[in-house]
């Protein structure tokens, strides 16, 4: 049987999920455990470790040593014996890895793990923990080989092998392919590399880990932009030399998020270009994450930063409305007027609006021509009338009252209340096409059904929130106290956080007194963008959020589009075979 190829994993770096040492800890105060393994040479499958050597150091002082042979439970290949000098006889009395792991895991607790070609050693240790039921502590890891590639030039060392680096730094112990000797040599190499980091403005363990990773010269040159930023929720703005906003983002921890732009994890080409043009980062502190998200949306809409892709042009939203006149039709428009009573939206693109319009045209006999029809003058009918797809109001074959009942009224009902007739008509059409094995056409109708449901569900949710003059809500804050939000007509008018152990009422009174005055208007988003209202809805609908006060009830139609959420999910996932039997 062929042996599985071993693929080295990437290291955790500054991942927030990583435990252990604070990345801001200075290097001189950091406890390092330098480890080296000897193995049978196979893939990390939970075994194969023959020797572990580890040295604990801090501030140049040795704090402890752990060294042991390990019985791998399998024969040692002859070439490994030649390389390391470890024989089968030496390993017979040695403890198995499951007995060694508890002591080793205790030894590396609250320390930064260091190894030369660390992914290899860490891979074996993680696999052993997984196989024998021990939790891997996921420590921060520093790879001396990667660090050497960043610090030393080819003129200084021809390669980054441990033996080469040991000779260059004149280590007190030379590598011998035995775990403890190699670990001790790696300690001296680590200290030598740390001595070279000062010239690169690398002073903390987090900086060292990131410096070892492959970052661009621009990221390294501009990383000072992340200094001095607050570790609080808010919005950050990258600005150019002329103070133009280049990019706007949000985070629950501004300092950590901005710092991530200067790490190897940031690989987006447009962000690299943005960093080259950025000269400073401005932080806008916010009370909590909801306020930060809303402020981000508003700043992006106001300034249209060139390196933001989403939320830049909220004014480009489109609506699908029923025109006025005796024989109304569907029209895609940019704005609603106070006289518009039957409409659907907003849509983020013309394609989405056209897809929803096609869905209504499949379900109800709305005319599709753009002629202005007269009750006195007859206009020649188009091909749709001949195909039975239009009741030919242009030739006065249907009265305005009949047309309104059969075509216009279903649209009004579907958008404002119950889309059941439209949904039934589209499902019936999908059934017919599927029975005739016209699956591609059925898929087209399915996508139109999804567009209709998506738009109606969205609009009815937005309209329900926009109809509330004022709503106050609270959510438990992570550090104690309450996150508070005051919403008026679907717009965030005020936000704050009450201190732990203090009743939130006084804070809410202050927020209300200083909140933005918001006037209502026409449509489901009269005072805010649809995206802002949806962010607010998402925050309000969390299980931990509490509604404190409302000027009126918050409700949606019992027979509204919301009850078709499951059907919408199936339509969006392409489960057309399930749609034919769905009748919500």
From TrEMBL:
Question: Where does the record place the GIY-YIG domain?
Answer: 231-309
Its Gene Ontology cellular component terms are:
excinuclease repair complex
Extract the GO molecular function terms from the UniProt entry. Answer: DNA binding; DNA-directed DNA polymerase activity; exonuclease activity
Q: Name one GO biological process term.
A: DNA replication
Which Pfam families does its entry note?
GIY-YIG, RNase_T
What keywords would UniProt list here? Exonuclease, Hydrolase, Nuclease
InterPro entries to which the protein is assigned, alphabetical: DnaQ (IPR006054), GIY-YIG_endonuc (IPR000305), GIY-YIG_endonuc_sf (IPR035901), GIY-YIG_UvrC_Cho (IPR047296), Ribonucl_H (IPR013520), RNaseH-like_sf (IPR012337), RNaseH_sf (IPR036397), UvrABC_protein_C (IPR050066)
NCBIfam families, alphabetically? dnaq (TIGR00573), PRK07883.1-2 (NF005904), PRK07883.1-3 (NF005905), PRK07883.1-5 (NF005907)
Task: Specify the protein name.
Answer: DEDD exnuclease domain-containing protein
